[in-house]
Write a structure and sequence with these properties.
This protein has helices at about 45-50, 70-75, 90-100, 110-115, 120-125, 130-145, 160-175, 190-195, 215-220, 235-240, 260-270, 285-295; strands at about 5-15, 15-30, 30-35, 60-65, 75-80, 150-155, 180-185, 200-205, 205-210, 225-230, 245-250, 255-260, 275-280. The protein is of the alpha/beta class and about 300 residues long. The chain has a 6-stranded mixed beta sheet with strand order 5-6-7-3-8-9, sandwiched between helices. It has a 4-stranded antiparallel beta sheet with strand order 11-12-10-13. Strand 6, helix 7 and strand 7 (about 180-185) form a beta-alpha-beta unit. The chain is elongated and about 75 Å long.
């Protein structure tokens, strides 16, 4: 697979304070990568350096094996920032037509409208008359106008209702299916869990986790098996098992905290323990995110 993004020992200092510290990673074509982290973790600074809008204090950024400032690179990327700014006094269709002229191989207007879901009424509306949600749809269309191979989305669904968010991510999946590479930041961790094929987790300027959502959750979270016990449950016997870290009761159910749910289930059935209403919880990305940032010293 083609390497689209290559980051090597990237650092950025502001007034002697490191916003990003010695970060390295690469992104391959077709990946959908979420950059996550608390406020001040270095996400936005890293994205701005990838876009060539900030110069690193040290380290290197390469997009398509070239510097991000090169025109040929900029012709192959699309960007949707959190803050939407559109030229006033122009109709939406006029702004889209203008942006399409900036690229050598733009999407046709018909493809752009189909991909982004813009309505005829929106296309004929002047930009200053658009609602917040409509502006974000136009911003999405502008990011896609050049038919980019690499797309950056910075908090793309802020201000969208739940229906609009689902529609947006459905379109992002279409981009991935078409071979596009997508890199996005979001505070909605469930979106990253649902959409991303890979997560880069930043904290205090450092890259502290890198992997698919399931791998990160598996590494960081304690899974549980819970059930209703038909009699006295042999808590002490299960606590002696190496893969069990805790056994406790909660809301009338026995909860076994474990790294190996299959082993716990096999032990329950092998010993003939009378249980019912078994439930397995493998945790959420929000829980992994909270656990990791707490471990890293973030309140």
């Amino acid at each position: 697979m083609e390497t689209i993004v290559e980051i090597t020992n990237l650092s950025k200092e502001f007034k002697g304070k490191k916003a990003v510290e010695d970060v390295s990673f690469s992104i391959q074509s077709g990946e959908v990568v979420a950059i996550l982290g608390p406020n001040g973790a270095g996400k936005s600074t890293s994205i701005l350096m990838m876009l060539g809008l900030l110069h690193p204090s040290s380290g290197e950024v390469s997009l398509f094996n070239q510097r991000p400032q090169e025109q040929k690179v900029r012709e192959r990327i699309g960007v949707m920032l959190q803050q939407v700014s559109l030229m006033d006094a122009l109709k939406v269709k006029e702004v889209l037509a203008l942006f399409r002229t900036y690229y050598p191989n733009p999407l046709s207007m018909e493809e752009l409208i189909r991909l982004t879901g813009l309505q005829e009424s929106e296309l004929n509306k002047r930009t200053e008359k658009l609602s917040g949600g409509q502006k974000r749809r136009v911003s999405f269309a502008l990011a896609m106008a050049g038919n980019p191979d690499l797309v950056f989305f910075d908090e793309p669904t802020v201000g969208m209702d739940s229906t609009a968010r689902k529609e947006f991510w459905a379109r992002v999946r279409q981009l991935a299916d078409a071979g596009k590479t997508v890199l996005f930041s979001t505070h909605y961790l469930q979106e990253a869990d649902d959409v991303a094929t890979r997560i880069l987790l930043f904290n205090e300027g450092k890259l502290v986790a890198d992997g698919c959502p399931s791998t990160i959750k598996q590494q960081l979270l304690k899974k549980t098996v819970s059930f209703k016990a038909g009699g006295d449950f042999p808590k002490e016997r299960f606590l002696t098992m190496t893969h069990v870290s805790d056994v406790y009761e909660e809301k009338g159910r026995v909860v076994i905290q474990t790294e190996d749910t299959d082993h716990v289930l096999a032990s329950l059935f092998t010993e003939g323990t009378p249980v019912s209403d078994i439930s397995i919880d493998k945790g959420r990305l929000e829980d992994a995110f909270e656990q990791l940032t707490v471990e890293q010293g973030v309140s």
